[in-house]
Design a protein that fits this description.
Blueprint: H1 3-10, E1 22-33, E2 36-44, E3 55-56, E4 59-61, H2 68-80, E5 87-92, E6 96-97, E7 102-111, E8 126-133, H3 134-139, E9 143-149, E10 173-182, E11 185-188, H4 189-202
Parallel strand pairs: 1-7
Antiparallel strand pairs: 1-2, 1-4, 2-3, 2-8, 5-7, 6-7, 9-10, 10-11
Pfam families: NUDIX
Keywords: Hydrolase, Magnesium, Manganese, Metal-binding
Protein name: NUDIX domain-containing protein
């Protein structure tokens, strides 16, 4: 292989996180209620296989051939039963790569030309929706807890191929878990982490 072949494969390439097995996109939807901007949350349907009864943003897996932004819009349309014309994307926030090798790409947008009280979400996916004023998050910090992350080494790991063998000093990590409590709704996990990220950007 010559340098021309190498250049043709690398030049202009868009970087991607390594070892991601699935890409998801979500929308953080803002609505105007009275004189307040509020964030829309979903309570996931209790019959779902993944995270039933938990609080989330509209979103889902990115399908082949679509962009992250297109996926966030499509999933919001499907879950909230609204039209594409009701969604205006403001911008993209920082993405997360989870400990299970899933990338989550969040977008911030507004829901327009429809009252949030008239939104009838898809009952197959969403039990109901609720809103929280942006000012609530500005005034109330989430509670923060940590999970310790450490490697679990398989029995057939080739220690003989690495320096210091079984005495190799593996790196340990900490995983932050945020919790907000609003009117008995517990917003936590990645939904809370993305909420905090958004609030930190606008403070």
């Amino acid at each position: 292989m010559d340098i021309g072949d190498i250049i043709s494969k690398v030049e202009g390439r868009v970087a991607q996180p390594l070892e991601v097995r699935q890409n998801f996109a979500v929308l953080i939807p803002l609505v105007k209620k009275g004189n307040q901007w509020q964030i829309v949350y979903e309570l996931r349907a209790k019959n779902l296989k993944r995270q039933p009864g938990e609080i989330s943003f509209p979103g889902g897996e990115v399908e082949r051939g679509e962009t992250f932004k297109e996926a966030a819009i499509r999933e919001t349309i499907e879950e909230l039963n609204i039209e594409k014309e009701n969604i205006d994307i403001i911008g993209e926030l920082d993405y997360i790569v989870t400990t299970s090798n899933i990338a989550i790409y969040p977008f911030l947008g507004t829901i327009n030309n429809i009252s949030v009280d008239k939104i009838r979400p898809n009952k197959d996916e969403v039990d109901h929706i609720f809103t929280v004023p942006v000012d609530f998050f500005i005034k109330n910090e989430p509670k923060l807890y940590y999970l310790d992350l450490h490697p679990v080494i398989s029995k057939d790991f080739p220690y003989n191929l690495i320096p210091n063998g079984e005495k190799y000093k593996w790196k340990f990590g900490k995983y932050s878990v945020y919790f907000y409590n609003y009117n008995d709704y517990i917003i936590w996990g990645y939904t809370a982490k993305l909420t905090k990220h958004f609030i930190d950007l606008i403070k």
